[in-house]
Amino acid sequence: MENQEFKTQTVKFGGTTCVVNRYKYQNGQNCLKLVDLEDFAPYCTATTAYDTEIEQDEVIIKDYSENSGVMKALIEADVIEQHHRRIETPFVYLYVCKLK
Questions:
Q1: Each residue of 20-44: pLDDT tens digit?
Q2: Disulfide: which of 36, 49, 67, 97 matches 80 by Cβ 3.0-4.6 Å?
Q3: How far apart, in whole angstroms, are the C-alpha atoms of residue 51 and residue 56?
Q4: DSSP string across 11-51
Q5: Helix, strand or coil for residue 74?
Q6: Are 64 and 83 in contact (CB under 8 A)?
Q7: Which pTM value belongs to this model?
Q8: How many CB atoms sit inside 10 A of residue 82's CB?
Q9: CA angle, corner 96, sides to 10 and 50, nearest 5?
């Protein structure tokens, strides 16, 4: 197994400072979950899995409803790059971003 550099990333979203945890969805796409840095309670899931092809270094951001503003916060925290693709779903837009 390759050695991978581990870095802790934090983001301020909704007035809360959170740690960014990276996981994989069952379909292999990347998942970003934010955890409150103060009490380690789950804060939000910034991404979603969607039936579309994306690269291994990309995520699909859900920036609507209670997650409104999460994409901007993740960009400002240097976790992701600005979206380069938008996915239209029946109710909302999803955004494909490259991980940093």
A1: 999 999 999 999 999 999 999 999 9
A2: 97
A3: 14
A4: EEETTEEEEEEEEE-TTS-EEEEEEETTT--EEEE-B---S
A5: helix
A6: no
A7: 0.91
A8: 10
A9: 105
